[in-house]
Amino acid sequence: MSSEIVPSLTLTPIGVVHSAWRDKRSAPRQPAAARGALGSIELYDHSHFEHALADISEWSHLWVLFWFHLNTSWSPKVLPPRSTEKRGVFATRSPHRPNPLGLSVVRLLGVSGRVLQVSDLDMIDGTPVFDIKPYVPYTDVVGDAQSGWLPDAAPGDPGPRYAVQWSENALEQLAFLAARTELPLRALAEEVLTLGPAPHPYRRIRAFADHLRLSVKDFRLRFVVEGQLVQVLNISTGYRTSVLADPNATATAETSLSVHREFVARFGN
Q: pLDDT tens-digit profile of 42-84?
């Protein structure tokens, strides 16, 4: 068998993703964690792609092949969010690959010209798209597939699970933010907190004397852990008072500083 390296291949994106996710830290790590997240895939205005989309509306879900365009390096071994030890990158879904190709399933909501409206979108805004294929349940679902190194857990969401409970104050704060921003703060927080408070590169968690704090985008969530229960006590802004008081300051994430100022005026800091 020949082990010669084949010449480089050239791929040309057919379109681009438009989503609420602006960076790697905010994007869900699996489509299952992006349930309900809305966005679109816009195909480029050449090669008659609008004709290539004929009949696609008959499918409820689509496979999207894309490029992890914000990754600039890779590693033979990586530390996945649900592992306590490094794994071979080919035994993971890590974006840090020799060729950073990604594959996700999205729900198709509608088609208008060269634009597909989708949900359950876990791709970062601006992601280049290489191909789109229909998701075919009878052939794409493998009932007896094994979960490899992932520990046994509830079907569809493996890993050590913690229950997440929100205080009345935290729920009120979530509702306040949900009315003013598209950031799915609760979903992003629960994706991390259900894995527990253990230190990990993917979890922005700090320990204090009487509580722990999770950073999600530009918000901070104070919580405590009792057994397998994570209790979120309250939410606070991640911006200093001096920044919020500066009329010329700009936000570093999707949420505008005006939302943070309203939040602090309502709940304090």
A: 999 988 999 999 999 999 999 999 999 998 889 899 887 777 7
Residue 132 sits in the same domain as residue 68: yes
212/208 Cα distance (integer angstroms): 6
Interacting residues of 137 by C-beta distance below 8 A, sequence separation 6+: none
- Measure Cα distances from 151 to 106, 156, 161, 184, 244 in Å: 26, 12, 10, 27, 44
Q: Domain for residue 145, yes or no?
A: no
Q: Both 198 and 96 in a single domain? A: no
Q: Rg for the chain (alpha carbons), in Å?
A: 21
Cβ neighbours for 204, distance < 8 A, ≥ 6 positions apart: 25, 214, 215, 216
Specify whether 46 is located in the same domain as 130.
Answer: yes
CATH code (residue 34): 2.40.30.70
| Among 183, 173, 155, 180, CA closest to 236 | 173
**Global confidence as pTM:** 0.64
Residue whose entry in the numeric block shows the structure tokens 């609420």:
20
The DSSP element (H or E) to which 234 belongs, if any, is strand 229-237
In a domain, 249, yes or no: yes
Q: Does 133 share its domain with 173?
A: no
pLDDT tens, position by position, 77-117: 988 777 778 899 999 888 889 999 999 999 999 999 999 99
Strands (E), 101-144: 101-112, 115-119, 128-134
The domain tally of the chain equals 2
**In terms of DSSP bridges, do strands 87-88 and 61-67 run parallel, antiparallel, or are they unpaired?**
unpaired
| Full residue range of the structural domain in which residue 131 is found | 15-140
Residue 15 CB contacts under 8 Å (≥ 6 apart), including other chains: 41, 42, 43, 44, 49, 114, 128, 129
Whether 229 is covered by a domain: the verdict is: yes
